[in-house]
Amino acid sequence: MVDINGGGFTLYTTIPISQAPYPHGLGKIGHEELETDMKQLLGIHHGNQTANEQAFWTPRYQRLLNHHLKPFFDPAGDIVEIARQATAHAHSNPVLNQRLPSTPDAQIRYRAQMPTLGPEVPQEVVRWRDHPPEITRYADGVTRYGNGRHRLSYLRSRIQPIDPNFQVLVKLDHIEHQWS
């Protein structure tokens, strides 16, 4: 993500799943039915991050995640295993955990340092490693998704009750201006 105010940095890193932000709404192109169901569940607050966090562990919210996101993220394997392998493979990248200028070059530099994986590595793992979920942290402490909120919501649903310290690969954009 480019910081239009000229500051900030990008960090490809791992975080415990319990520290990932809750979604600021679920549903978009490809997830229209999920969006409709979330609107029924949360009403006008369906796009509110706090409302999603408060409802996240309720049985109905969990059923919606499982119903709508399991077929999308688990058809070729278990999302927990996909995330685990992607994170393990990313550890071979020398720019992991390095502060990179917050420009489009950050992704180019990250990907250029990534070792080639063989055909035995599932494509879902390669995609996660090469395009991890994107989280933006603003100067005022607000944390939001740039991309990947559906993936991380489903992963959180599956692994956090068992292992809240499960490490997941993410791209963090630190922005030096306020969200609000």
Fold and architecture overview:
α1 runs antiparallel to α3, α3 crosses α7 and α4 packs across α6. The protein has 7 helices and 5 strands, in the order βααααβααββαβ. It has a 5-stranded mixed sheet. The two termini are 18 Å apart. The chain is 40% helix and 16% strand. The chain has 180 residues and is of the alpha+beta class. The protein is globular, with a radius of gyration of 16 Å.
Short structural description:
The protein has helices spanning 32-42, 49-55, 59-73, 79-90, 105-112, 123-130, 149-159, and strands at residues 9-16, 99-101, 134-137, 143-147, 167-174.
List keywords for this structure.
180 residues, alpha+beta, 5-stranded mixed sheet, 7 helices, 40% helix, globular, disordered N terminus
Low-confidence stretches: 1-6
Summarize model confidence as the mean pLDDT. Answer: 90
The rough form would be described as globular
Number of helical runs? 7
The biggest beta sheet, please?
A: 5 strands, mixed
Distance between the termini: 18 Å
Helix % is 40-55%
User: What would you call the structural class?
Assistant: alpha+beta
Radius of gyration: 16 Å
What spatial order of strands do you see in the largest sheet?
2-1-5-3-4
Tell me the total number of β-strands. 5
How do the SSEs run, as a string of H and E? Answer: EHHHHEHHEEHE
The fraction of residues assigned to DSSP E strands is: 15-25%
